[in-house]
């Protein structure tokens, strides 16, 4: 059993375990109960009615949150020539070709997200065992294998996040920081829920969004009314 500290227990006692909170109430309560002294991340955990063992029910993608995540993201771009110059102008932190491949092979992964132009994937593909487990492998389905490197650098810097249903069908996604005002957190939440509804697999049967829980890095889980998808700032 996981043991929690007294601050966590005190916060958990203020959450009604049987209540389904509105998105606004959940975000307000999460901010209020965040027990740590640092600026905790607010996370949303959405349990979907999908069978991820079936290829046509794998829910995965990325979305640019309206207000970002509050995290400083270091972006690496595997590109050459003009595309490398575009990446630099867009604010990429690490840019290279063979030299960047060599750095990664040597264990130097000083970035949080990676982009590659299509012509670089032959070289980047060799890094799969290093980048893949860390969630850093460029992927065309996520838009990170692209010729429009400047646009993707901007989106990643602004707060584009990846969502992916794990083997239990749960997507764990950061929504921002405790220091965000409630409206920004709710608007980020709404953008994610609408995106998940948009990508619902046609083969998924039964209830699609089964449950939603909001929490902070060190705080307790707060159940959210998953049927509320409009007018999210209402109580």
Write the layout of secondary structure elements.
Elements lengths: L5 H7 L10 H11 L7 E8 L11 E5 L10 E4 L2 H10 L3 E3 L1 H8 L7 E4 L4 H4 L3 H4 L17 H10 L1 E5 L5 E8 L4 H17 L10 E8 L5 E3 L11
Parallel strand pairs: 3-4, 3-5
Antiparallel strand pairs: 1-7, 1-8, 2-6, 8-9
Order of strands across the widest beta sheet?
A: 7-1-8-9
Number of strands: 9
Shape: globular
Largest sheet: 4 strands, antiparallel
Unreliable stretches covering 5 or more consecutive residues: none
Q: What is the succession of H and E elements?
A: HHEEEHEHEHHHEEHEE
Give the termini distance in whole angstroms.
35 Å
Q: Please bin the fraction of helical residues.
A: 25-40%
Cα gyration radius (Å): 19 Å
Tally of contiguous helical segments: 8
Strand content: 15-25%
Question: What average pLDDT do the residues reach?
Answer: 91
Describe this structure in words.
It is a single chain. With 235 residues, the chain is of the alpha/beta class. It contains eight helices and nine strands. A four-stranded antiparallel β-sheet has the order 7-1-8-9. Strand 8 and strand 9 form a beta hairpin. Helix 2 crosses helix 8 and helix 3 runs parallel beside helix 7. The model has no long low-confidence stretch (mean pLDDT 91).
Keywords:
235 residues; alpha/beta; four-stranded antiparallel beta sheet; 8 helices; 9 strands; globular
Could you give a short description of this structure?
This protein has 235 residues and is α/β, with parallel strands linked by helices. It is built from 8 helices and 9 strands. The mean pLDDT is 91.
């Amino acid at each position: 059993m996981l043991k929690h500290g007294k601050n966590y227990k005190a916060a958990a006692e203020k959450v009604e375990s049987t209540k389904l909170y509105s998105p606004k109430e959940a975000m307000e309560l999460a901010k209020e109960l965040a027990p740590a002294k640092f600026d905790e991340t607010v996370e949303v955990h959405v349990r979907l009615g999908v069978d991820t063992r079936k290829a046509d029910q794998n829910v995965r993608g990325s979305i640019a949150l309206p207000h970002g995540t509050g995290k400083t993201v270091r972006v690496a771009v595997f590109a050459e020539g003009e595309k490398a110059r575009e990446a630099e102008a867009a604010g990429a932190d690490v840019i290279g070709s063979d030299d960047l491949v060599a750095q990664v092979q040597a264990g130097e992964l000083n970035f949080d997200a990676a982009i590659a132009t299509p012509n670089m994937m032959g070289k980047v593909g060799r890094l799969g065992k290093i980048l893949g487990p860390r969630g850093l492998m460029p992927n065309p389905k996520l838009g990170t294998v692209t010729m429009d490197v400047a646009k993707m650098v901007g989106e990643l810097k602004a707060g584009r996040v990846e969502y992916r249903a794990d083997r239990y069908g749960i997507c764990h996604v950061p929504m921002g920081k405790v220091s965000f005002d409630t409206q920004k957190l709710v608007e980020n939440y709404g953008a994610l829920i609408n995106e998940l509804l948009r990508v619902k697999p046609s083969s998924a049967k039964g209830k699609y969004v089964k449950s939603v829980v909001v929490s902070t890095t060190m705080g307790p889980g707060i159940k959210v009314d998953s049927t509320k998808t409009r007018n999210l700032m209402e109580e």
